[in-house]
Amino acid sequence: MKRVNLAILPLLCCVLICSCKKDMNQQGALYQAPATSDVVALLAWETVIPANSFSSFSTYWNNLYPWGSDHNGTARMRTENISLSGDVLTFTSTVTSGVGNSNKDPYLPIHYYSGAIHAKAIPVVNDAYPKWRFSAEVQSPSAKGTWPAWWITGADSWPPESDIMEFKGSTTTWTNTYKNPSGGWSSQGHVISNPANWHTYTAYVTKISATDVQIEYWIDGTLKATHTGANFVGKRFNIILNYQMEGSSGSPGPTGSTVMKVRNVVVQKSATL
User: Is residue 212 assigned to a domain?
Assistant: First the structure.
């Protein structure tokens, strides 16, 4: 009897192994190794600005706009109006008066102090890195006169520009590209439920010709708009987060302090499309 059991043991093992393989195949992808293309996709991105960059602020960021303290609204940017708590950056707009006008067109009177930052990294879409990803989580004000933005713009000349998130005094955020192939703006508005909660605003900028890019704008993981950006390729870009006031967002603005909060800013580049 023992000899018979020993003799059939190898046969039983083969049957069991074959049965297990069949069951595993029938249960689908859970047991399958990922395709080579999936692995490449996971490894293709190189991180330029990591999600925890605010913890090492001076390594990755500068205060103010690249050109200084003023822009196209009624807020003058100051380092005193920016604060950090963990990995969350807060821009606080405070009311002021008697400080003159903005030194940038359209030279509006300064009614607020607020905050702006720009990245030390200068992205360039080219053959070496034809695809870029810009993403940030933002708690945004949306009252009349508040004008928060997350955008990239030409570092050496304007245009081009891509506005990944721009609230202008309402719960509608705008995705804007200048310039489009016709030489103007491509713009879409997207109503955001509770913009003061955390929402993720992302743009994928991809080279599609010797001069032009395709820009996909995503909000909370959903594709919202696709634009063509003319003459983006080979241009150096500034990356900017700012909390501007009034101007295109209407006036009068808030009579007290208001805030914009940002976390998990990520910038990545890819050598493959």
Answer: yes
pTM for the complete prediction? 0.85
Bridge partners for 258 per DSSP = 93
Q: Is residue 23 part of a domain?
A: no
Query: Average pLDDT, whole number, for the chain?
Result: 89
20 located within any domain: no
Q: Which residues does the annotation mark as catalytic?
A: 161, 166
> Domain span at residue 204?
45-270
Question: Which residue is associated with the tokens 């891509």?
Answer: 162
User: Domain total for the chain?
Assistant: 1
Tokens of 3: 């000899």
Q: What is the pLDDT of residues 133-150, one digit of tens each?
A: 999 999 999 999 999 999
Task: Judge contact between 145 and 253, C-beta under 8 A.
Answer: yes
Residue 5 covered by a domain = no
> Which CATH number do you get for residue 253?
2.60.120.200
Cβ neighbours around 159 below 10 Å, total: 19
Number of neighbouring beta carbons within 10 Å of residue 271: 12
Q: Where are the alpha helices (DSSP H) in the chain?
A: 2-26, 36-43, 57-60
pLDDT at 226 over 60: yes
Largest CA distance in the chain: 105
The CA distance from 193 to 175, in Å, is 16
By CB neighbour count within 10 A (0-12 exposed, 13-18 middle, 19+ buried), where does 211 fall? middle
Residue-level pLDDT at 42: 56
